[in-house]
Amino acid sequence: MENITVKEIVAATGGRLLCGNETQKIAHLSIDSRTMKGNDLFVPLIGEKVDAHRFIEQAFGAGAVAVLTSEHDTAEDAEHAWIRVADTKKALQDIGRYYRSRLSLPLVGITGSVGKTTTREMVAAALSAKYQVYKTPKFQQPGGVPITLSEITLADEIGVLELGMSMPGELTVIAKIAQVDMAVITNVGITHIEQLGSQENIYHEKLTIQDGLKDGGILFLNGDDPLLKDTKAKAGCVPYITELERIPVPGRGYPQRGWLPGVYRKLPWRKVYGALKHHGAPQCAECHGGSGCGRLQRSSAFRRSEEPGCLYRIQKPPADRGEKWSYHY
Q: Of 24, 43, 242, 287, which has the fewest beta carbons less than 10 angstroms from its beta carbon?
């Protein structure tokens, strides 16, 4: 967090300062008393088994300078700021919402049953060619979006956030906090179906990412997902439906769509090579599209070659794959 004071935290949460210096600067948010970074605001959450209020003194010892509390009405502490709030979890969300309102950079929000992390990394890598990108850390903190937002700095030019959910109504809350400019839904599977009841319910929950999508924002949808392919964006936003590129195989037409970027399908190797040759792909300098290159990795029937002028190699599959071939294009 940059240029945030205890006074602003009190205003954002609707809390009451019990003691401490209201001009104290806050640099980080933390819900774990063991992982202070310095000048932290410790937010003790109340879980099913543990009430983190018991770790307040430990947090101060580790570097926290302020704390939220829903269990103290008075406090006497000359060194630390104590802020009384009704609910520490809601207060954490209020802080995230307030900090987001101070940020002017555009944000991309990514959700989906699977592929969120991979998509986040790919989007961040592409954007980093031109911008300084902030992305959700590899190991996202349990506090989720508010803590992630709090680590964005003025030097960052665009952010890529992973927005997960497991319970009904959860995504709409964090989407409204994040206020993204672009939203991505990778797919709709059956993850967390035990909490949500059906894949149809999961689909509707994923769409609530739009509850935080700004007017004029873009909703990116996976056109190869049967539930997403005909989805409409909310009023005032633009849907963009993507589909995977396919290779027509001579004498067979288009293979079925794959689930990875590009095409991934199993075919006899001669049909694979026929498709490549039909599209002008250079032959392997060693096998010339013949029986295959035995030295290649086993994971695909052909891969990009490092040799100049040779883009692809064709490889025979292991014996346990029978007559089928796996390939990427």
A: 242
SS3 of 68-100 = EECCCCCCCCCCCEEEECCCHHHHHHHHHHHHH
What does the pLDDT look like over 255-273, one tens digit per residue? 433 322 233 233 344 444 4
Distance CA 249, CA 141 (A): 46
User: Where are the extended beta strands (E) located within 102-211?
Assistant: 107-111, 133-135, 158-162, 182-185
pLDDT at 259: 27
Q: Which of 43, 3, 2, 37 is nearest to 23 (CA)?
A: 3
Which residues neighbour 299 within 8 Å (Cβ) at sequence distance 6 or greater?
326
Ranges assigned E (strand) in 89-209: 107-111, 133-135, 158-162, 182-185
Signed CA dihedral, 232, 233, 234, 235: sign only = negative
How far apart CA 305 and CA 284 sit, in angstroms, is 8
- Residues 266, 321: Cα–Cα separation, whole Å: 10
On whether the CB atoms of residues 297 and 272 are closer than 8 A, the answer is no
- Distance (Å, whole) CA 69 – CA 51: 11
Residue among 321, 273, 263, 267 at smallest CA distance from 293: 273
Six token digits for residue 152: 């964005």
SS (H, E, C) 36-48: CCCCEEECCCECC
Q: Where does residue 242 rank: exposed (0-12), middle (13-18), buried (19+ CB within 10 A)?
A: middle
Percentage of residues of the chain with pLDDT beyond 90? 57
User: Three-class SS of residue 304?
Assistant: strand
